[in-house]
Amino acid sequence: MSHDDTGKETQDKSAEIASLEERLQVLRVEHRALDQRLQELEKHLSLTPLEQQEVARIKKQKLHKKDEISRIEGTLAQLTKPQPADS
């Protein structure tokens, strides 16, 4: 691999890391917003059928976002892990 290829690879990797970190931040904000809405609904003494559906939908969305957050964190851990030097 030439020096230019290594530089391009490093640049691509840095761009991918930045993109994933940005996506992670967005997901965390969205997850927090869903959590806050869920807490608001759970303060009610009783929920209408529509609110019950909303609670179920929010819980599914939170779980989906949490799974995506975990997946991205794993990918970032792999990308930022120090690579052994070529001998």
What does this entry look like structurally?
The protein is mainly alpha-helical and 87 residues long. The protein has one domain (7-78). The protein is 83% helix and 0% strand. The chain has 2 helices and no strands. Helix 1 packs antiparallel against helix 2 (49-80). It is rod-shaped and about 65 Å long. The mean pLDDT is 91.
Number of strands: 0
Extract low-pLDDT stretches: none
Number of domains: 1
Using only CA atoms, what is the Rg?
A: 20 Å
Q: Globular, elongated, flat, extended or rod-shaped: what is the shape? A: rod-shaped
Q: What string, H for helix and E for strand, traces the elements in order?
A: HH
Structural class: mainly alpha
Give the arrangement of secondary structure elements.
Layout: H1 3-42, H2 49-80
Summed up, what is this model?
By secondary structure, the protein is an all-alpha fold. Helix content is 83%, strand content 0%. The longest helix has 40 residues, at 3-42.
Q: What structural keywords apply?
A:
87 residues
